[in-house]
Amino acid sequence: ELFTSLAHMERALFAEREISSRIKEYVREEKQRLDALSRLADELETHSSKALENVDFYLGNPVNAYLFVKRFTVDWERHIEDILKWKPNEEFHEKVNKLKEYLPTYEDLNGAVAALLRLQDTYKLETEKIAAGDIAGIKTSELSAVDCFEVGRVAYNDEDYYHTTAWMIEAMSRLENEKNKTVNKSEIIDFLAFSVYQQGNVRHALDLTNELLTLVPGHDRALNNKEYYLKMISEKEEKMGETATMGEAATMGEPAADEPLKNEKGRDEYKSTDEFIMYERLCRGEHTHDYKDQHKLVCRYKTNNDPLLLINPAKEEEIYLDPYLVAYHNVISDYELAVIKSIATPKLGRATVHNAKTGKLEFAHYRVSKSAWLRPDDDIVVERVNRRISAVTKLEMDTAEDLQIANYGIGGHYEPHFDFARKEESNAFKGLNTGNRIATWLSYMSDVEAGGATVFPYIGVKIFPKRGMAAFWYNLYKNGDGIYDTRHAACPVLVGTKWVSNKWIHERGQEFKRPCGLLADGLKKD
Ligand SMILES: O=C(O)CCC(=O)C(=O)O
Ligand SMILES: [Fe+2]
């Protein structure tokens, strides 16, 4: 009796000890979870308060924009969701889920990567430099191996094997230097092998697949692919005949392993036209044309004997003589710009701009019309600006078309076009009843940190935006013919945001200001 009872007691003591250690284990796990949550909260707080200090600066950078979107898609799914799910608290989850509505999605991730890759192409940015946090000399966050890997993966899903290869190679090289590896080497090789195969480099794909198999010996897909690649190579060798040696035959007609083929898929024919090539060169700020009249260009104070300009002359800089193209510096004040920006409301329009929410390029212009929502003072400011434009250009201001305001985000651009209607589009401005667009006044309402130039590919002119500056040119000769050399485009914004407004001036009403002529001339205003 005593003996059994003692045995019971002893078992009870063991149980007591076990309960204690279970509790301790539970508390340790809870602490870990709370530590992780608290680290996460700190991280989100640090990040958001730093970004909120200067939102335009922060989100105006394509790398920051990508990293921001990535943290709420890929990172969230990989690391954050688990921490939050662990021991759920319903009220907490309900609140977090509500806020998630405002967070970026995978669609945004695709958009951010697409913008980054488009900018990489237009501005010829090296993958290595972007990853090292250098965008055309502007310092940004560095990318980790997994950051590069995710860029490559988005490109891969888009069947863009050229960029997949470049970014996976960069991920590999970043991985070598990482103390805490952010991604598995085998995952990178897996994508890389397939993308170099898609680019036509079977031998390189085979080498990579062998490397993958040394890392993950039983990898099913790699084993299958290896067999397939070997078969392709031996078929090719047979075709090459007996004259070539084995090694040569296998690589003949293929690029060297370190020289991936450029994938042409998705690049429409337009992109290889002279015009597009010139457009991109000008966007990069390259010199494309020698201008024979360069020495004739002057800068001058312009008053046109108009009282408004006598007290405050326009600072005119000639850019081109035929077609006549000039810039006016500090011609619109910061206050006026602020008012014009504030009255811009989004409406469907006609330019390709970057939608920050979807990350896509879409048609959207901001249109200002003289309607009820204009505050009385705003109206006066718009009138005042129009009055100044009229004084400077010596043209009548018309209200046939509303002031068009465009806000381009990262990657936002507008491909080459004419502002006037061509003969075959005789109906273009019919409804307006004011004729064709005789001239364009383009106001720059913001500085742009990098990119975003207005370029004229036929004459080799590039104008880099400056806040308060305006560009002015005639679209039509005096006889009404269109001036085709005015074809122009807005380059993608590389860093920053770009605000412009277009004031189109029409033919009607200019009868005394700029009389018609019989000839295709009359480019000079005086
Ligand atoms: O934004 C620019 O630089 C040019 C815009 C333009 O050409 C237009 O809106 O018609
Ligand atoms: Fe235009």
TrEMBL record:
Superkingdom classification of source: Eukaryota
Subcellular location: Endoplasmic reticulum lumen
Family under the similarity heading: Belongs to the P4HA family.
Role according to the record: Catalyzes the post-translational formation of 4-hydroxyproline in -Xaa-Pro-Gly- sequences in collagens and other proteins.
Pfam families per record: 2OG-FeII_Oxy_3 (PF13640), P4Ha_N (PF08336), TPR_P4H (PF23558)
Primary enzyme class: oxidoreductase
Cofactor: L-ascorbate
Gene Ontology CC: one annotated term: endoplasmic reticulum lumen
Fe2OG dioxygenase domain segment(s): 399-507
Keyword set, alphabetical order: Dioxygenase, Endoplasmic reticulum, Glycoprotein, Iron, Metal-binding, Oxidoreductase, Signal, Vitamin C
Name of this chain's protein: procollagen-proline 4-dioxygenase
PANTHER family membership: PROLYL 4-HYDROXYLASE ALPHA SUBUNIT (PTHR10869), PROLYL 4-HYDROXYLASE SUBUNIT ALPHA-2 (PTHR10869:SF244)
Entries under InterPro entries matching the protein: Oxoglu/Fe-dep_dioxygenase_dom (IPR005123), P4H_N (IPR013547), P4HA-like (IPR045054), Pro_4_hyd_alph (IPR006620), Pro_4_hyd_alph_FE2OG_OXY (IPR044862), TPR-like_helical_dom_sf (IPR011990), TPR_P4H (IPR059068)
Species annotation: Mytilus edulis (Blue mussel)
Predominant localisation class: endoplasmic reticulum
Enzyme nomenclature, EC number: 1.14.11.2
MF annotations from Gene Ontology: iron ion binding; L-ascorbic acid binding; procollagen-proline 4-dioxygenase activity
